[in-house]
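In response to a reviewer's request, we include the raw inputs and outputs for one of the modeled complexes. The two entities were modeled together in a single run.
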Amino acid sequence: MRRWPNVVRYFLLFLGALIFLFPFYYMLIGSLQSEPDTSVSGAFPTSGLTLDNYKDINSRVDLLGSLVNSGIFTGGVLLGTVVFGTVAGYALARLQWRGRGVLFALVLLVQVIPFQLLLIPLYVLIVRGYGLADNYLGMILPFAINTTAVFVFRQFFLQLPDDLFAAARLDGAGEVRILWSVALPLVRPALLTAVLLTFIGPWNEFLWPFLVTKDADMQPLAVSLANYISNVSSRAANPFGAILAGACVLAAPAVALFIAFQRQFISSDISSGVKG
Amino acid sequence: MTAAPTVAGGAKRNRAAGFLGRHPVGMILAAPYAVYLAVIFAYPFGFSVWMSFHDYFFAAPGAIVDHPFVGLDNYKAAVTDPAVRQAFKNILIFLVINVPLTTALALVLAVALNRVVHARTFLRVSFYVPYVTASVAVVGVWLFLFNSGGLVNSILGPLAPDPSWLVNEGWAMPVIAFFVTWKQLGFFILLYLAALQNVPKELYESASVDGANGWNKFWSVTVPAVRSSTALVVILALITGANLFTEPYLLTGGGGPNGSSASPVLIMYQRGIQQGEPDFAAALGVLLVLATLVVAYINRRFIEGRDS
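The model returned the following structure tokens for the whole complex.
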């Protein structure tokens, strides 16, 4: 009886999935074609694929250097979030101290303040005030502790059973020790979710690193590729091929990580972080 | 659920809770984050509002300059600027397309995905992948797809718009709206999937008893049950729209053609940083946030207010 709606549902879902995936397939194909072939049959080439576009983009944008910059930027944000975010999440979830309510209200408020309002003052402060233009610290600072991740950490520490903490305290363990050897090991899977969630932010971020880096040697790949798209692509032999090759290099790490750890993107974990 | 606090714990609370609380170490643990919030959010927030009421400009490093109070001058300049008005109009077009499309598609796809048994992982990953990929990377392929000689126009043949999508004043903003819908949809599907886990099965069972078909159940059980998530989806989609920058900067080459796809944040960048008028940009930022809050409030009333 329910067979027919099921067939329709699967058909529509697969059709939707194909539409969603097609640009990625086309990105890869386009990056391998020596001449852009935009006819319908050109989307399904049988021969003539080459890696020349990757060489071309690499000669104009220092791919390896940009990837290293992206890595340092992302790594710095992850380090700040994991180190300071977990302890803040723990303090917000499990410890009673003066000012906890105020800090938590502030955390909620921060979620509401949009980045565009902070854009100009942060630029004035970090680039003009502290002279951190073309500097990794300047790139990392505005994202150093991901507030959504703090929410997720707090949520996970809250879900741990109270008895566990009471028992550890009875055994005379200090609060820092309880955090380190009782709470953290238990939330390790959640830690991975938060790390993955935090990773895509700085790795994909364009606007802020674009504002603070003018020196090509300091630019993350998203910025150097964007500059290539908006400035120099018109001079290349096959501009789209080179752009798409760069796009594949930029997309690959995030997509690979996501597919490898897709089980960690458990819907309930993430929404608990977003909704607080 | 969680165990109730033990008697011993309660007694300890009374004994040890001092002025700094029961666990003063919590202050030290939370201090770096608190400092971060103060330096990166609270202070710039105040600075932004202050700047918008003063004559602020970039001076040589170390120079002491006066930034006189100018009242609402920056706001007046922003409100009367034709490019700003155009940008707000563009964002409105964006939101009118993006928000309903995002909400409807995300809910329908989440409901469909929720009952899927086969190829579950493949289907979910397909819808999430654009969300985890950098905008700059996928903008590259959209440029390729939608340029005048691109695949989309080869498929459409004579039906292709002239001038082509991204250089057509009527189509530039809608293409950006479709792009962002496609890019962000996975995240909103995720939110709805989480909400659907909390809809009590009994509601569907009693609807079945009352003779409701799938469509009826969707409208009378699912849609009301996920209403608070819908409010969240609408607000997050709204904030994404208000923050629009990368797409008009790259996809339509700096808000073109003729400013028909410029966004307020793009104008903030152009005026504030490229042309050195941070006070104007700060005022524009405040206006943008106020406009976002007003629209968010209206939406909240509209979606949640009827029977809550």
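As requested, we also summarize the result in words. The mean pLDDT of chain B is 87. Chain B has one domain: 82-304.
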